[in-house]
Structures are given as structure tokens and as C-alpha cells.
Amino acid sequence: MTIKSVAVLGLGGMGGGMARTLLRAGFAVTVYNRSKDKAAPLVDAGATLANSASEVGADADVLLISLADESAVDELLFGEVVWQLKPGTVIIDTTTVSPSFAKNTAIRLAASGVDRLEACVVGNPEMAANGQLRIFVAGEQAALTKAEPVLSALGQEIRHLGAVGRASALKLALNLMLGVQTAALAEAASFVQAAGLDRDLLLDVVMNSGWRSPVLGFRVDFMRRREYQPAGFRTALMHKDLDLALQQAAAYQVSLPLTSAATDRFQTVIESGRGDDDAAVVVELP
After folding, report:
1. Most buried pick, 21, 47, 111, 135, via CB within 10 A?
2. Distance CA 124, CA 76 (A)
3. DSSP string covering 211-224, please?
4. Residue 159 host element (H or E)
5. pLDDT tens profile 97-138
């Protein structure tokens, strides 16, 4: 199948970055975001702006979705978008949702003649804008084959995980590790400061030792600068993903005590009014 047009619904850091990569790859790209200011740079780069969510995927061969949460998918995809899609359209949904929600969504879309691929994208907004993501996909092989040109433009690695729900489970597993590690780094900083050491000393040691990792390094940079905007991963979204993992774990009858503790810490950040800051702001908690 030749993919001529791609629509992108949701233009946050990841969605906007992926849209820019698709433009650079030569696709005709239509975009929509509820906050239209986020679409302006992409329109300047050659994208077409849809006037509403219901219009964004009307002529698309592939619809790429990057939304905040399950309620946004329900509201936009099922409330406005799906009725306008052509039969055979492939949806690549990169929204972090629970495996249960992913399975239910695929069933609902199948009734409309639309295929859904769930995509666990690993990377940050900069990687999204440069086609350097790693993408783990769940869904039907036929849909993956159709969407392969788009996925290949977005990622340096594409891996098929099989049945629907597996990509969502993997994404939640990765994000719960990120949440726990970020909270642990914040606690380590509090500990060394109580001992009379400087936070930056700890951060320098982390970044120049075996503790270093790209994902922790991203949070270290925020903590070192003590500036948490623009966020790479908003605290509110981190909390949402950890809570999803806890809910799904309960269904699996699996205990996640560290995840539960980290979720409480990020909840405290939100209650302090800093939910839109990067999750690294947890280090500023007393």
C-alpha cells in the first residue's frame, strides 16, 4: 500500500516531533490540536491544519494519535474522528493507555472498518523530531505492513510484539521504572543535602559513573538547572501512567509497592500546583 497522506492528532512534544519527522520524510501531513498555537510551527513547515478533530483524518491513509490519556482518546477519537475515517484507514495510537483499554479500543474500531496499531514509542521529543524513536507495535500484521512506511520514518527500530495490549503493557512497564528511578534520584539528592553535600555533586557523580543512563540523564539536567519548563515528561502524565500501571497490576494480581510509593510522591507534586512541570521537579519536594 502506498501511503500518501498522514494525519496527526495531538501535537504535544512527542506528537509535534513525529509530525515534523513525517513532513521531512515527504508525506502530506494534516494536523490538529485542541490548542491551535502548537500547530502553527508545523503549518509553517508545510502541514495542513484541520479546522476540527472531525476533519483531521478524513482523507488520511494513516492517522497517528498522540494524546494525553484515555479520556482524550474517548472524547476525540470516538466522539469526533472515527466517523469520518475511510474504511481501511490504519490508526497508529501512541497514547499511553492500559492494556485493557487498548483491547477494548481495537474491538470498537474494528466495527468501523478501521485498523488500530498500538505503539509503544521509546524516546523523547527531540528523538521524535529526528526519526530516532524505537517503536514496539502490537496489532494485526496486515495493519503493520500497511503502516510500515510511516513507522520506518519515525523510528530507528520497529518491533512487532503480537497481540493487542502488549505494547501498552510494555510502555507502562518502562514508565513505571522511569517514575521509580526519578523519585529515587530525588530522594538521594535529599539525603546527600541533609548530610551537608551539594545536590550538584551527586548529580555529577551519577552522570560520570556506572549509574549514568540516558533516561536518568534527562531528569538530571532538569534537576541541575532547577528549571522544569518546558517539560519533557509532565508530572501529571507521569502520575497518570503510574496509576494506570497500578490499576492494571491489580487486575493481574501483581503487587507493585515501589510504584505505589512513587505515585504518592508525584501526587504530592501535583497537589503543590506543579503538575505541568517536568517530573524531575519531585526533587524540590521538602
Report:
1. 47
2. 24
3. T--HHHHHHHHHHH
4. strand 155-162
5. 999 999 999 999 988 899 999 999 999 999 999 999 999 999
